[in-house]
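Running this now, will post back.
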Amino acid sequence: MTISRIKGTNDILPQAAAGWRAVEALLRQICREFGYGEIRTPVFEETELFQRGVGETTDIVQKEMYTFTDRGGRSLTLRPENTASAARAYLENKLHAAAQPVKLYYIGPMFRSEQPQAGRFRQFHQFGVEVFGSASPLADAEVIALAWEFYRRLGISSPELRLNSVGCPECRPAHKEALREFLKPSLAKLCPTCQGRYERNPLRILDCKNEGCQKLTEGAPTTFSSLCPECGEHFARVTEALSAAGIPYQLDQRLVRGLDYYTKTAFEMLSAGIGAQSALCGGGRYDGLVQALGGEATPAVGFALGLERVFAALKAQEAEIKTEEAPDVFVLAFPAGNAEVSRAAFALTAELRRAGLAVEQDLLGRGMKSQLKHADKLGAPHVVIVGERELAENQVLLREMARGEQRAVPISEVREILLTSAT
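Update: finished.
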């Protein structure tokens, strides 16, 4: 009996991994241009970090975390998201003492114990950015612009940006109370999950995907009806900045996001045809998170996107990712069974690789015709043929695959010829 991968996880095979590297390279390039530095946090953290950071009332904490007890009796959790970890690292490493704002990005695997379906996995890969130390609406607009630029360069057509403001600790209580009053007559008709949210966090009821709950909340008080002047002004400046940058958006007053730490700006980008959920990415401002983890009050804003959803969106839109995975050259030994020829071909392969060229060679002892066929399949533009007769004359045959032409060159010159061709 063979052992299979765990349901909700994936093997990323070499051909697909080439696309992943291309997408990750694009993300890193854009982050460099925007001035963000990479942070790498542990895959597991103390469970309390996510309970305090993500929120006790969230589905993530209540239903989806992979939590275990280690040999020391500590409760640990595989990270279900990375914002709480980034905030913990910001505090623990005293980044608050560095020049502000601190602008970070991360790429890595996250884990949630949920029912696998199209667009949702138990191990998934997330990219995100976090800005600590800036209360400016321009910081909100910048992280949104970064996400928008990524999808623009990637070729995702017409992503839909939805915006809302969820208020702050000053104005949110009034909205919560108004929402409870509105929902009170329908409390028994809400789904069991939303009945539990009624007292703890009624805003989350607006985010429920249950059709019955969505119908019951039609006409419910919105956060906009309760925003304080500061939150209203902040949101206005965010939208003004996005308009100035030519980034279209839609107001969505039901958008509250699924995490308890959001304040003021909340946003999502959507794309149709990518499975169970249409969200490409989401984020917002979380000015209370660092303080909730034991630090000083620190303004912060960020977003995260799932890389699996990026590829699902590309597939749905039949968009291609440009990759450069073909070798620069294929070194062919003939006859492959000749020990001297094989040694010379192996030595030449090592020399070319040391020069920075991507080089493939035959490892199966195939004949010349089969080796040429394999080189063509790999997409190698050049083949260097190390033959018994040519080797006796300190030469090799250099074959240009596109033209089907070959010529003899001194073995001492082949490296420079290939380097010149590769530039």
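Residues 14-34 form the longest helix (21 residues). More later if anyone needs it.
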